[in-house]
Specification:
The protein is α+β, with helices and mostly antiparallel strands and about 450 residues long. The protein has one domain: Cytochrome p450 (Orthogonal Bundle), CATH 1.10.630. It has 20 helices and twelve strands. The strands form four sheets. Strands 2-3-8-5 form a four-stranded mixed sheet. Helix 9 crosses helix 15, helix 15 (about 275-285) runs parallel beside helix 20 and helix 17 (about 315-325) packs across helix 20 (about 410-420).
């Protein structure tokens, strides 16, 4: 008996079957079956998965951070990840924050508790609040540069320290005790390193020098809260006051421990990503002499104490955007699925490890011409750049980096003040190559430079 074939009509199409994500093709940088990507990522963090995307498209499997993960890359993947908030388990993904602090630490919260706390903490990051403190931030920059012995310093650590010194002026209107900025910078870098350590992170947490740093920081931050409580005048025009006063009236008072941990997050978060935006901006600006002169010409009328908008400085803005694109601080993000979902014709199970390659689109030639070249002018020539769902430096969606508004102020402010008033000589010649050390950093460490005042 012959059976008629069913042919789809214009009104009826046959959808291809959804396949399990375990059937995705596997990619290894060295081409070996099941080979790990960790070593290649450490040496080339921004480009290591480009070949996998070119070969397999938006979805493939990788072995990374000691486990097999499903990689998601490209513009469509970014849009899907950043708009589907509830399918991700931040409680599991960001457990290293909870383990080193408490279960009230913002980055590992989910659902309503996360939104409530984020709304409160965001009160201190409104542009109107931040721009009112740029004069104090400039003072901190000049103070730290002028204190350098003969102007010589390791550029990476210096940028980390100065970001924290700037935050002290904005956050609590204080200068830090001697050495506290360095302690905070190193402690934050150590904390972020734990995210991909697996079970070994417990040894990392308990290492006495790391415990000592955290204890010292928490003790100092507690003293700030105690001093403010004892003064009888806790209402100051700073971020701490804005965050505390934003507590909803029908919620219990914030505990002292939670406030200390919130302060630590506010103090140290930018010491990794923002500091590297600054370091890379200075490296590229001082190695590209043509662009350096164009920037300095634009900054002729720059007043470090009256910076209230980036609009008059399109080349300065373009420099920051190009560095965010070319050297994104955290180029991949580990995620865990909170529920099963379909994407790209594949079914991802609940509890799966997903490696979101959220900055890979920065290097796609169909979006950016000559993507590996430092060319800030591209953002001036084409005001439509960056396109939606492409620029992933601060992630996206509901869990976008809390400090993104501040990160759009501190790097251009820092960069402009250095370019305007100082020359920078490389005592260690930069190769412009990268390595991953809790953040995308210059391969050379230390990267020694000398600052001298311009005549």
């Amino acid at each position: 008996m012959q059976t008629d074939k069913v042919t789809p009509t214009d009104a009826e199409t046959v959808e291809p079957p959804v396949r399990p994500a375990s059937e995705l093709p596997f990619f290894s940088p060295d081409g070996s079956p099941g080979g790990a990507s960790d070593a290649a990522f450490a040496k080339d963090p921004t480009h290591v998965f480009l070949e996998g995307h070119r070969k397999h498209g938006a979805l493939f499997r990788v072995k990374f951070a000691e486990r097999e993960q499903y990689a998601m890359a490209g513009v469509e993947a970014n849009h899907f990840v950043w708009t589907n908030h509830d399918i991700w388990d931040y409680y599991s993904t960001n457990r290293h924050f909870r383990e080193q602090f408490t279960d009230r630490y913002l980055n590992q919260l989910v659902g309503k508790p996360y939104l409530q706390k984020r709304r409160r903490m965001m009160q201190g990051f409104r542009p109107s609040v931040l721009m009112g403190h740029t004069d104090r931030m400039s003072e901190a920059i000049f103070r730290e540069v002028d204190r350098l012995p003969d102007g010589v310093v390791d550029l990476r650590l210096f940028c980390m320290r100065v970001i924290i010194a700037m935050m002290a002026r904005v956050l609590v209107q204080k200068d830090l005790p001697e050495g506290m900025d360095r302690t905070m910078a190193l402690s934050n870098r150590e904390m972020l390193k734990a995210s991909n350590m697996g079970w070994k992170r417990w040894l990392w947490y308990q290492y006495p020098p790391k415990l000592w740093k955290r204890h010292k920081i928490f003790k100092y931050l507690g003293s700030i809260l105690d001093e403010r409580a004892q003064s009888g005048d806790p209402e100051k025009e700073d971020i701490l006051s804005a965050v505390v006063s934003a507590q909803e009236k029908d919620h219990p008072n914030i505990s002292r421990t939670e406030l200390i941990h919130d302060l630590s997050q506010l103090f140290m978060a930018g010491s990794t990503t923002s500091s590297m935006i600054i370091a890379w901006s200075l490296i590229h600006s001082f190695t590209d002499t043509v662009w350096l002169e164009e920037l300095r010409t634009e900054l002729t009328d720059w007043d470090p104490y009256k910076f209230d908008s980036i609009d008059p400085y399109p080349k300065l803005r373009a420099t920051t955007l190009e560095i965010e694109r070319l050297h994104p601080g955290v180029p991949v993000f580990n995620r865990v699925t909170a529920e099963a979902f379909d994407f790209g014709g594949f079914r991802f199970p609940k509890g799966a490890d997903v490696l979101h390659l959220h900055t890979l689109a920065h290097f796609m030639e169909e979006i950016y011409e000559d993507p590996d070249v430092f060319r800030p002018a591209r953002f001036i020539e084409n005001p439509e750049l960056p396109p939606k769902d492409v620029h992933g430096t601060f992630s996206g969606g509901r869990h976008k980096c809390l400090g993104a508004p501040l990160a759009r102020i501190q790097p251009p402010l820092f960069t402009a003040n250095i370019l305007k008033y100082y020359d920078m000589e490389f005592l260690t010649q930069p190769s412009l190559k990268e390595k991953y050390d809790a953040v995308v950093a210059p391969a050379e460490e230390p990267l020694m430079v000398r600052f001298t005042k311009r005549v």
